[in-house]
Design goal:
The chain is α/β, with parallel strands linked by helices. It has helices at 9-16, 24-36, 40-61, 80-87, 100-109, 126-130, 133-138, 162-172, 191-204, 213-219, and strands spanning 66-70, 92-97, 116-120, 146-150, 178-184, 224-225, 231-232, 250-256. The protein has one domain (9-256): 3-Layer(aba) Sandwich (Rossmann fold), CATH 3.40.50.150. Strands 1, 2, 3, 4, 5, 6, 7 and 8 form an 8-stranded mixed beta sheet that branches.
């Protein structure tokens, strides 16, 4: 259970994005990360922008009308259902998070939205998550869908086989489905800075595991990657808002089953 004395992933992420759904304890922890890695705010905002572009691609170009957003975090601007409904108001979206506070907050905002729900679930338990009754009410797992794993797999420790976890979601997808994934990396930052940032998460939040490109690529095995493949999130199908000097903080890709 989260408390006002314990920073949470979701509230820290909200703070990085410039939101207001965060507490002093979250800001203090996030500021420690920013002190170690000043580019983290730019990187996280680029990661959020990737999510928007990926969902637009999936809805407008790939024809996907069902989305499961795992590790969704607190609602903010440009939510998945808002983007998908801009293409087709009938698109269905299930938000999943392991934090009851996040699920309650999202559920309240979605109370009048018939085609979107928020449920509690653990990314490490694919079969249990995909069997959730409310998810099954909204999503037909026999028809093409998209699973979104945005900035979540880097919280799965090596001992719990992150590539294997992602693979179980991949194997549950029917043909013609997609999986979008982003993962934090230390490839673009000094080793001591990466270590300091990870220490903040280990000391009071949730341990964070920064992984190199080849380890992220292994999580996408068995998928056909949409061009340009696995790249810095800022360089995945960029729009006019692409930064002049994108910071490598996250790798991202969209793959087809």
């Amino acid at each position: 259970m989260t408390t006002e004395r314990t920073p949470t992933i979701a509230r820290m992420y909200d703070y990085y994005l410039g939101g207001t759904e965060n507490l002093d304890v979250d800001r203090e922890a996030a500021d420690q990360v920013i002190a170690a890695v000043p580019d983290v705010v730019a990187g996280i905002r680029q990661n959020r922008a990737f999510l928007g572009r990926a969902v637009r691609f999936l809805a407008a170009e790939a024809g996907i009308r069902q989305f499961i957003d795992i590790g969704a975090g607190l609602p903010t601007q440009g939510n998945v259902h808002e983007i998908a409904h801009g293409v087709d108001p009938a698109a269905r979206v299930v938000y999943v998070d392991f934090d009851p506070e996040v699920v309650a907050h999202a559920g309240a905002l979605l109370a009048r939205e018939p085609n979107a729900v928020a449920i509690e679930g653990d990314v490490r338990r694919p079969e249990e998550l995909l069997a959730h009754p409310r998810l099954r009410e909204l999503v037909d797992l026999d028809r093409p869908l998209a699973i979104l794993m945005i900035a979540v797999v880097h919280f799965i420790p090596d001992a719990e086989d992150p590539a294997g976890v992602v693979g179980r979601y991949r194997d549950a997808l029917p043909g013609g489905s997609y999986l979008a994934l982003t993962h934090a990396t230390a490839d673009g930052i000094p080793a001591d800075a990466a270590s300091d940032a990870m220490d903040v998460y280990r000391s009071g939040v949730t341990p964070l595991y920064l992984r190199r490109r080849e380890r992220v690529a292994a999580q996408l095995a068995g998928l056909t990657l949409v061009e340009p493949g696995l790249v810095n999130v800022a360089e995945w199908r960029p729009d006019a808002s692409k930064p002049d000097d994108p910071k490598l903080m996250f790798y991202g890709a969209v793959g087809r089953r």
